Structure formats: structure tokens, C-alpha cells
Amino acid sequence: MANTEQLAILKQGVKVWNAWREQNREIDINLSTANLSEAKLSGIDFYKADLSGAILKEIHLTDANLVGADLYNATLTNAFLDRANLQNADLREANLQRAQLNRTHWRAANCNRTDFRDVVAQGADFSYASLEKVKFNRSFLVEAIFCGTYLAEGDFSQATIGDTIFTDSDM
């Protein structure tokens, strides 16, 4: 369950939240199961935040810091995550259908069983991520990077993958 004090700070906007985070790095962020749908949070610092089970439909997280964040089973349908950093994040069983993921960084993220159907992820870097049983059906993955990525049983049917790199990936 989300921490009500942290939600109150977040509602004051990205600038206030990021300043508070800078002063309170040792505090664990718990926004689990929160409904932040349609929130405009571009540039937010959600480093190692617990957003598991959160409803984040149509959220704006462009340029967000989500390094190490827990987004297990989160709903991010139609979300905007261009240039967000999700390195080492946990997105197992998350739903990102129709999300904008251009130039996002997923290095070493755990995205097993994540639904990426119909996403636009041009230039996204999934290097060393775990993407077992993911769905990338009908997704636009031009110039995406899957270097050393675990892709067992992934579904890329009807995906556009021109100039996509699959070096040393386990398929």
C-alpha cells in the first residue's frame, strides 16, 4: 500500500518531489498499488521506488530515473517513457501495451512475462535484460539493442525490427 505522506509530496509536483528525494535518499519509497494514471511526472526521480501493482496508465515518465525500481505487475498501458532509465528495474508481469519507449534504457532489467505488445521502442537498449516469455507482438523495435539479452520464448510476431541488434542474445 502506498505511503500517504509520500503521495502528498508527489502531488506537489516533480520539482518538489525531486528536491525532497535529494534530501531524503535513505528513505524507502513506497508507492505500491497507487493510481497515478495520467500524471505528468517527466524527469521524476523514482530511484529504487516500490511501484509494484501501481496503476500508471497514460503516465508521463519521459526522462525519469527508474533505476532499480520495483514495477512488478504494474499497469503502464499507453505510458510515455521516452529516454527513461529502467536499469536493474523489476518489471516482471507488467503491462506496457501501446507505451512509448523510445531510447529507454533497460540494461539488466527483469522483464519476464512483461506485455510489450504494440509499443514503440525505437533505439531502446535492452542489453543484458531478462525478457523470458515477453510479448512484443506488433511492436516497433527499429534500432533497438538486445545485446546479451535473455529472450527465451519471447513473441516478436509482426514486430518491426529493422537495424535491431541481437548480439549474444539467448533466444
Describe the 3D structure.
- The structure is a single chain.
- With 171 residues, this protein is mostly loops.
- Helix content is 10%, strand content 0%.
- The protein is built from two helices and no strands.
- The chain has helices at 4-10, 14-23.
- It is elongated and about 45 Å long.
- The termini are far apart.
- The mean pLDDT is 97.
Q: Please summarize the sheet with the most strands.
A: none
Structural class: little secondary structure
Spans of at least 5 consecutive residues whose pLDDT stays below 50 are: none
Please report the number of helical segments: 2
Please tell me how large the radius of gyration is: 15 Å
Strand residue content:
under 5%
Q: Mean pLDDT score, rounded?
A: 97
Element-level helix/strand string: HH
The coarse overall form would be elongated
From the N-terminal CA to the C-terminal CA, the straight-line distance is 37 Å
State the helicity in percent bands: under 10%
Query: Tally of extended strands?
Result: 0
Question: In short, what is this structure?
Answer:
The protein has 171 residues and is low in regular secondary structure. The chain is built from two helices and no strands.
